[in-house]
Design goal:
about 500 residues, mainly alpha
Amino acid sequence: MAYLQFPLLILFILLLGAVMTPLLMKRFNLKGKYFILTVLIASLSLSAYLLFQVMTQGSYMYNIGNWSPTIGIQFSVDEFSTMMVFFILMMTTLVVIYSLRDIEHEILPKQIPVYYSLIFLLLVGMVGITFTNDLFNTYVFMEILAMTSCAIISIKRKKENFMAAFKYLMLNTLASISFLFGVALLYMATGYLNITEMSNQMAIAWEMYPTNILLALGFMAAGLGIKAAVFPLHTWLPDAHSSAPTPSSALLSGLVVKVYIFVAMKVLFRLVGTEIIIVNLGVHNYIAYFAAVGMIMGSIFAIGQKDIKRMLAYSSVAQLGYIFLGIGMATTQGLSVSLFHVVSHGLMKSALFLSAGAIIYKTEKRKINDLSGIGYEMPLTMIVFSIAALGMIGIPGMSGFMSKWYLALAVLESNQPFYLVVILLSSFLNAVYYLPIIVAAFLKPREDGSEEMTRDGIPRTMTMPMVIIAGLIILVGIFPQILMNIIERAVPTFL
């Protein structure tokens, strides 16, 4: 039963990595790289074993120090949290392997140990948010995540990074205050901060303090909406994700914004409950409206971009709309497809940012118009980019197609066919800004007029993670039940 301690042990190992990395790495050498990978692989192995145990033995509540959950810290170790923690650690490990060579081109050598220390703190925030069953501790982990994200964005000493980090810091501070107001109002109404205990008191609290509950939901929705970059609260995201070092962009866009969605799902479905959310307030309808607008507007903004990383950042705004549309359906099928697209988008967006970063690493080209013939110069990189981009469009055989297929079934099951039109229109817009890049890369000649195919010319530590992620996109696209079987066991923890 030693695995019962694994959630805390994972956090301890990551925190140890954050503290020890700057102390052990005076220079970014081979020894330092092995230490970083050892910490990540140890955490990933524990999370994989924990996921296996939960899937076979069942979920459990872990009370740190055996304190009562009403006053202590409690982790909810269930199918949802273990699956997402495993995914977060797996993707981060791949991105960090990619970064071992790329980061030397992004920041100063003396900043590299600090950078990896920040990556470990970023993981502490994400893993903590996913496991915790307490709203105040959720707030604490959110602050760790926000401060670390801000530092990772501003680590490149350029004006655009400082401006993006400042905007991120200002808006996320407002979001944190708004979320904390919501937590305080819920505490006033229920007398607890533990999500399970609050949920048990919610029916009585709603009868006695409906205004408190309504205001709390409003404050928390605003705070989480900013942090998750939901349209029209997304204004910080394009600057932050496009200016950050490429590995950071992959983590921020592929993982970080998703954990705030986890918090929103916990608050809406585990804490407040479907009866109040759906029957009394109809909150799910507003979520679906905003999601639909975000799916369209994010793509329209992406079409107008000339910088490839900025285009990918706006694409994230559109793709987050798919996740929230599933949540807005407020059904088992809807929540299932939301979690499916969390994983699917995490894979696709990481592959896109890493392949874009590989192009910048070798050619220094960021403008989309300069990528003609890049498929001849960097064929493997552009194949990875194309697989992920086709997934974003929704081409069969890719994980993105299954996301859209499941989402279409969810909206039809909810008898809301209008959203099917939105999904089709959004997919068309995705094609408008992704297909021209693929066509120009493989069908137009290089700048020097040559059509000779050459090797990518980037380190294997960069190509290997990209190829693995591209393989996972295809694997999930062809065998979606591998992922959906786990998700179908995780969704009942919300409904």
